[in-house]
Specification:
Blueprint: H1 2-24, E1 34-42, E2 47-50, E3 53-58, E4 61-67, E5 69-76, E6 83-89, E7 94-101, E8 108-117, E9 129-131, E10 136-138, E11 150-153, E12 158-161, E13 173-176, E14 199-201, E15 208-211, E16 217-226, E17 235-243
Parallel strand pairs: 1-7
Antiparallel strand pairs: 1-4, 2-3, 2-5, 5-6, 8-17, 9-10, 9-11, 11-12, 12-14, 13-15, 15-16, 16-17
């Protein structure tokens, strides 16, 4: 009888042990399918978009929990072209990208220094006027004078709008800037704001913004001057940025 009872108890003990083993060894959770992306750009501060969605992060920063696989990343920054590329995200790893070079969408051309001479008694080989769009200097009485935007006048020794010279029609407006550093990235005020004039003095130390007959902005500085002695008319040398995009005041 004792042997029969022992036989019945053994299977029950086995079931209890098996039950205890199952609670002590829970099921292993599935591996993550997400990774991270660390992105830098030059310049910094670009918005990070992934698969068309704004992550609300800006470079340099890490975007976490990105689904593994091939992702499309777009960097957006004011005054720069959107930059888009693809990368492969690996689960539980951080992909490091950059620095990504951003390309400016401000289209400007730097001209000069170019020398122009005062109008009084200036021979044809010493031009007094400028075509801002091409960087070329022409005489105000030459066959190319219809291209002249500004010129150096002997009357008051001013750099002024071409339309102030007899028979020339191209009008250029001037706005004196607040700095002498032509390369400070300062944008021009819009033509319909602030006080614009028709000329500047030939010793103006600050750069000046220009708005020409065709609706283009320039940013010009007198960088040198001389002459004004017997046998040499007075002259100034100017350097300027010309914005190639009509009505675009950015520099």
């Amino acid at each position: 009888m004792k042997k029969l009872a022992l036989i019945l108890i053994i299977p029950i003990i086995g079931l209890i042990i098996a039950s205890c083993d199952s609670t002590d060894n829970p099921t292993t959770p599935p591996a993550s399918t997400k990774g991270n992306i660390f992105i830098t750009s030059n310049p910094a501060g670009a918005e990070i978009w992934i698969d068309g969605t704004n992550t609300n992060k800006t470079t340099p920063d890490t975007v976490k929990d990105v689904e593994q696989g091939t992702r499309t990343v777009t960097l957006k920054l004011q005054d720069y072209n959107d930059t888009t590329f693809t990368l492969s995200v690996t689960a539980e790893q951080t992909s490091v990208v950059g620095p990504i070079a951003m390309t400016s969408n401000i289209m400007t051309t730097l001209y000069g220094p170019v020398r122009i001479y005062e109008t009084l008694g200036t021979p044809a080989n010493e031009p007094s006027g400028l075509d801002l769009s091409s960087g070329m200097a022409y005489g105000v009485s030459s066959g190319q004078n219809g291209l002249v935007d500004i010129y150096y006048s002997s009357n008051g020794f001013l750099v002024q709008s071409a339309h102030l010279y007899p028979n020339l029609i191209r009008e250029t407006d001037f706005f004196i800037g607040s700095s002498s550093n032509l390369f400070d990235d300062e944008d021009s005020p819009l033509r319909n704001t602030g006080t614009w004039t028709e000329s500047i003095g030939d010793r103006e130390a600050n750069y000046v913004f220009l708005y020409d007959h065709d609706g283009h902005y320039s940013k010009l500085k007198i960088v040198d001057w001389g002459g004004g002695v017997p046998g040499e008319p007075a002259w100034v040398e100017v350097q300027w940025y010309y914005n190639d995009t009509q009505l675009d005041n950015r520099f």
